[in-house]
Design a protein that fits this description.
By secondary structure, the chain is α+β, with helices and mostly antiparallel strands. The chain has 2 domains: about 120 residues, Jelly Rolls; about 200 residues, Jelly Rolls (Sandwich), CATH 2.60.120.10.
Length: about 375
């Protein structure tokens, strides 16, 4: 297993994984996970090499031409390589209906298959294990996302899809008592348009929740050293590093959470696109809460893992790597599972999440000062 898993899990956690997991030797060319098929296990890669890929849509003329030349009905785009210590099938932890990527064996490899039923039961029954495990998953997905995001610097980007589902992933997973704690320990305030909330290459010192308004997520067009990025805004004599927008943030979204408390620097910049209301929770306060309240930690780390996975999928979509999204007027194919299709459980959580977010806004307004009331009109 990688240093990430070993550093985040305890000896007893690792012993449990080894006890319930099944070691498997998989041959080159074998498909471990297939797009659209149910996920039945989480795989920890012991050694070897696998590829993570997505099928290309057949409605693109160039894709069809290459498919014809290669005598394939579906082309695939490799988006990541998986090696010792990586994970595959992590989507089963996030309650998706089916796999959205293919995982194929590149060379003879050994994996540890953790059955879904045993893993789900363990996560529900052992909150300490859940907190540590979800944090490890969030770190691993974030590492994968960071590598993929390098392509955003120069790639021709597709249209950005709606980010409204992030309210589901955050407020649909936390408890009412968690929201009470955030309200009590956070500071709601107005942020002027054009304010830099996070800067790429600099530390993240707080968790932000966007309550009202809009923010823009940007990334430098050219990769620069961390010191160049960190001091670019301070040295007016230097030519600013060109930025490009990669996403727009809407009310209900978490900012600076991925994964909170890790020593890595911000991978993107976040700037207010208009005057916005923000709930700021100081980093030190949040770190103490995560250490002292294991139940809160388990729920929070699960949210972080879910957001990391969602942003990974969104980045794939922005790069135009052939996702199956439903468009208005398009005939539904019952044999296909669309990436943005919500099941009934997700719709229930979406409704609950919306109610909790509205309750948070109302509660903050009741407790807020005149500034909150003027800004929220």
């Amino acid at each position: 297993m990688s240093h990430t898993l070993l550093q985040e899990l305890t000896n007893s956690d690792i012993d449990w994984l080894m006890a319930v997991g099944q070691k498997q030797q998989v041959k080159a060319g074998q498909t471990l996970i297939e797009t659209g098929q149910p996920l039945k296990a989480l795989y920890l890669i012991i050694d070897g090499s696998l590829t993570l890929s997505v099928p290309q849509t057949s409605d693109n003329a160039l894709n069809r031409a290459f498919a014809l030349l290669e005598e394939k009905s579906v082309l695939e785009r490799e988006i990541a390589s998986l090696h010792s210590g990586d994970i595959a099938g992590d989507e089963l932890l996030l309650q998706v209906r089916a796999a959205s990527t293919n995982v194929k064996v590149k060379q003879l490899s050994r994996v540890l298959a953790i059955p879904q039923k045993q893993l789900s039961a363990k996560l529900n029954q052992d909150v300490g294990f859940a907190a540590r495990f979800y944090r490890a998953i969030a770190l691993l997905i974030s590492e994968r996302l960071l590598k993929l995001m390098q392509q955003l610097r120069s790639a021709r980007l597709g249209s950005s899809s709606s980010q409204g589902r992030e309210v589901l992933f955050a407020f649909g997973e936390i408890n009412d008592s968690d929201i009470d704690w955030m309200i009590a320990n956070g500071n709601s305030h107005t942020v002027a348009a054009g304010t830099l909330l996070l800067q790429e290459g600099r530390p993240v010192e707080a968790l932000y929740i966007l309550l009202n308004g809009a923010m823009s997520v940007t990334i430098a067009e050219k990769e620069a050293s961390p010191l160049d990025r960190a001091f670019a805004a301070l040295e007016s004599s230097e030519t600013p590093i060109p930025e490009r927008e990669i996403a727009t943030l809407r009310p209900g979204e978490f900012i600076g959470e991925m994964p909170f408390g890790d020593s890595r620097l911000a991978s993107t910049s976040v700037i207010t696109a208009e005057e916005s209301l923000v709930l700021t929770i100081p980093g030190q306060v949040l770190r103490v809460k995560l250490q002292q309240d294991i139940g809160f930690s388990a729920r929070f780390e699960r949210v972080v893992a879910m957001l990391a996975a969602e942003r990974f999928r969104e980045t794939i979509n922005r790069l135009g790597y052939g996702r199956r999204f439903y468009s208005s007027g398009q005939s539904l194919d019952q044999s296909l599972s669309y990436e943005d299709e919500l099941n009934l459980d997700s719709l229930d959580k979406l409704s609950l999440a919306g109610s909790r977010f509205t309750w948070m806004l109302n509660r903050l307004q009741e407790l807020g000062n005149g500034e909150w009331k003027r800004a929220s009109r």
